[in-house]
Design goal:
Layout: H1 4-15, E1 23-25, E2 38-43, E3 58-63, E4 66-70, H2 76-82, E5 92-94, H3 100-103, H4 106-115, E6 122-126, H5 130-140, H6 142-152, H7 157-160, E7 161-165, E8 169-173, E9 177-183, E10 193-199, E11 202-206, H8 214-219, E12 225-231, H9 236-240, H10 246-256, H11 260-270, E13 274-281, H12 290-298, E14 305-307, E15 312-315
Parallel strand pairs: 4-5, 5-6, 6-7, 11-12, 12-13, 13-14
Antiparallel strand pairs: 1-15, 2-3, 2-15, 3-4, 8-9, 9-10, 10-11
Helix pairs in contact: 11-12
Bound molecules: zinc ion (2 copies).
Length: 319
């Protein structure tokens, strides 16, 4: 568990006292969830390994109380519930790419919503393979779904989950919200996207998993918040030493993710009002402090930056 008290102090230290208003733990947020607009960091650890205080990647964006979930790493359903958001209220899911730390709980969060009374459609957007993955999920759970429909009179969840395979461009347009996507580099994955949410309470960009990308920096220009994935290079050797195939894993991490210094270069172009470091790799090494995450960024960028924590809530519009 996170030590809430020391977390608060760390947060203040990393933000500076004047930057703290509007950023809190979700459970302590002043705005009621019903009408709230805020970003909640649900899972902030990169990679599919389970353990430690951090959870696998996922984000929750509430716009006027309507929940948008971005990435569905293991633990997303529990994290959204812990943030005070009932699963059946989810209307939109977004997957950045099909690495398992981003999609493992995609079907399960919908199944969890259905178990709690889902009776309205959920639209899901993700790279090529999202439609097929949806179909396969329902095949995997055919027995349970059909038993409960017949036995408990539930609606058919296969009709409620409506997936779309996306390409670059505008993927969703609502009266007050436009969501667009660009491909970002994450070799060997090609179908890999960053998302931008343009809303009346601010523009929020999620980098997804990406190597250093000037394209992403330009995409994020003018954003209120840029949530960027993060690799702390000095921590990588210690991390990969714990696993088999260490050399190959290190090679992948360095080629496919963004070192903190390079996040600073991205942010120096994008100049978001708030930069959030998330999808932390390594995400479960307690010896890596917030200051250590921020030091690399600061070599190239002096703007407002925060290191994500589970259930950190950032009120929108930004304070
Ligand atoms: Zn990842
Ligand atoms: Zn990935």
């Amino acid at each position: 568990m996170l030590d809430r008290r020391s977390f608060g102090l760390t947060l203040l230290a990393s933000l500076g006292a004047s930057a703290a208003p509007g950023i809190s733990l979700a459970q302590q947020a002043a705005t009621p969830v019903k009408a709230a607009s805020k970003l909640v960091l649900i899972g902030t650890k990169g990679g599919p390994r389970i353990g430690g205080p951090r959870v696998n990647p996922s984000n929750l964006l509430l716009i006027d109380g309507v929940p948008f979930v971005i990435d569905c790493g293991y633990g997303v359903a529990r994290g959204v519930v812990n943030a005070g958001v009932p699963l059946p209220s989810i209307r939109y899911l977004f997957i950045t790419h099909h690495h398992s730390d981003h999609n493992l709980e995609y079907g399960n969060i919908v199944d969890g919503a259905w178990s709690s009374g889902l009776n309205a459609p959920i639209r899901a957007f993700g790279p090529k393979g999202t439609v097929e993955m949806t179909d396969l999920f329902w095949k995997l759970n055919k027995f349970d779904v059909e038993t409960r429909i017949a036995d408990e009179g539930k609606p058919d969840p296969r009709k409620l989950l409506q997936p779309t395979d996306i390409d670059e461009g505008v993927v969703l347009e609502l009266p007050d919200i436009k969501v667009s996507a660009i491909r970002v580099p994450h070799p060997p994955v090609v179908e890999n996207f960053a998302y931008k949410f343009e809303t009346k309470v601010g523009t929020i960009v999620f980098s997804g998993d990406t190597a250093y990308s000037e394209k992403l920096a330009n995409f994020a220009k003018g954003a209120d918040i840029l949530v960027h994935e993060s690799l702390y290079e000095p921590g990588v050797d210690k991390m990969v030493a714990r696993v088999p195939f260490a050399a190959r894993l290190k090679e992948h991490l360095l080629a496919s993710h963004t070192k903190t210094e390079d996040i600073g270069r991205v942010a120096a172009i994008a100049r978001p009002k708030l930069l959030v470091l998330s999808h932390l790799v390594p995400g479960d090494d307690p010896t890596i402090t917030d200051e250590m995450w921020l030091a690399g960024v600061r070599k190239n960028y002096d703007g407002r930056t925060v290191v994500a924590k589970e259930q950190m809530a950032i009120d929108l519009p930004l304070a």
